Amino acid sequence: MAASAQFMATPVARRAGALCRTAKLAYAPVMGHIPDDSALMLRYQDGDTAAFETLYRRHNDPLYRYLLRLCRHRDTAEDIFQDVWGKIIKARSNYRPTAKFTTFLYRVAHNCFIDHIRRNKRHANSTEFDPEIHSDPGEQPDVLTERSLARERLLVALQDLPEEQRDAFLLREEAGLSVAQIASVTGCSRETAKSRIRYAVTKLKVAISEPEDKVRATVTVSGEER
């Protein structure tokens, strides 16, 4: 993914390694043991740069997809993506595993997104959406066409969701968070989080079943009708 490669080449990512060079601790690998996210973050806190790299590889793709579908604008998503990881790096010294790392990560991401909206009021009217889509070259044309139409219907439906519902839905589908985690990330009750997800799913089901002529008339990518 371009955003991932760009982040690893940024000063923020280089600082992640530089901050740890003078205090790196040795951790002997344990056969068959895969450390959980909180353990990796604590190891990074102690100076183990490789632990951060593992965390990054583990979460960069779902985090970027969440931000891209939430922002609907590639450049904005990439900016927030880098900002999120920069804040994770800065927060390592004060990190405490009081909740799952994914809750911590996506709370940071959610707050970065909200901060961006407050700084850029024009975001609310942005409709550009250009996700990276990789099709199987072996698929038949009719299958590719159906997949394309299904994606178009989903993109339109996601754009039309109220922001709070879209956020809750993407935290569930892209980040894989539980209802309790979503409530914690977005600062609402469990029932409110559950309700937002339910309404989002209902609206998406209705929207993606709409006639394709309506979809083709409303979907735009980078300002051009598809």
Key attributes of the depicted protein:
2 domains, two-stranded antiparallel sheet, mainly alpha, 11 helices, 226 residues, globular, Rna Polymerase Sigma Factor, Chain: A
Figure out the total of helices. 11
- Which CATH class of the largest domain applies here? Mainly Alpha
Tell how many strands the DSSP assignment holds: 2
Could you say which overall geometry the principal axes of the C-alpha atoms support?
globular
CATH superfamily membership of the largest domain:
RNA polymerase sigma factor, region 2, helix turn helix motif
Question: What about the largest sheet?
Answer: 2 strands, antiparallel
Give me the strand/helix succession.
HHHHHHHHHHHEE
Write up this protein.
- This protein has helices at 2-8, 11-18, 37-45, 49-71, 74-90, 101-119, 141-160, 163-173, 179-186, 190-207, 212-218; strands at 220-221, 224-225.
- By secondary structure, the protein is mainly α.
- It has 2 domains: 1-128, Rna Polymerase Sigma Factor, Chain: A (Orthogonal Bundle); 138-226, Orthogonal Bundle (Arc Repressor Mutant, subunit A).
- It has a two-stranded antiparallel sheet with strand order 1-2.
- A hairpin with a 2-residue loop joins strand 1 (220-221) and strand 2.
